[in-house]
Design a protein that fits this description.
about 210 residues; mainly alpha; Ferritin; 2 domains; 7 helices; about 0% strand; disordered N terminus; signal
Length: about 210
């Protein structure tokens, strides 16, 4: 009887060892596979909210981008005329700086609108568009009227009127940017609004000093 029980005990021990080994391998595989899955899931959940945040926008963001593109285009049109016509090198340098700064901002806002699936051209019936439109006025004139007046001037008279109209133009941009800061939600658009307020207020101060020196 003793000779028969020893092989049986040995076989039982061997079977137990194989079972434990198999369980350990399965646990290791589960840990390695489960860890990768957890990391992948975590990576997906951390990137998706950021992407959604960049694309999130409301009507105020859309109106701001559409109308500020038009506003910037008007400033560049005036500035380019000043580069050709200004009597003062100081005024000419200011005009060059305005054109160089606002061109890239137009490209930036255009890319937002395209990414949001919105029209680049302003839509008059959009909520908030009428409020933004008030920032387009310059001393009671629209863009066409301002350009027509500047085209008739030369020398110091041109420089003086250009500065007066560009100050009014910048004040309109600040008004539009303040409205965006109050009602917009897109982070990039809000950041640009902050930058416009800061940069154009600084240029207004500079132009006011130029007017005093003429």
């Amino acid at each position: 009887m003793k000779l028969r029980t020893r092989p049986a005990a040995a076989a039982g021990a061997l079977a137990l060892t194989l079972v434990l080994t198999a369980c350990g391998g399965s646990a290791d595989e589960a840990d390695s596979g489960g860890g990768a899955t957890t990391q992948d899931t975590t990576a997906q959940t951390t990137t998706e909210p950021e992407e959604q945040s960049e694309e999130a926008h409301n009507d105020a963001d859309t109106a701001f981008a559409q109308m500020m593109i038009v506003h910037h285009e008007g400033a560049i049109e005036m500035a380019d005329l000043a580069v050709e016509r200004a009597d003062s090198e100081e005024v000419r340098s200011l005009a060059e700086g305005i054109s160089a700064a606002q061109g890239p901002e137009i490209e930036e806002m255009t890319s937002w609108l395209e990414g949001w699936g919105e029209d680049v051209t302003p839509m008059g019936d959009m909520e908030g568009m009428e409020e933004m439109d008030s920032g387009m006025d310059m001393d009671g004139m629209d863009q066409e009227g301002a350009m027509a007046e500047l085209d008739q001037l030369s020398g110091a008279d041109f420089d003086r009127r250009f500065l007066e109209l560009m100050i009014a133009h910048h004040e309109g941009a600040i008004e539009m940017a303040e409205l965006q800061r109050a009602e917009g939600e897109n982070p990039a658009a809000l950041e640009l609004a902050d930058r416009i307020v800061q940069d154009q207020q600084a240029e207004i101060t500079e132009m006011e000093q130029m007017l005093q020196d003429l």
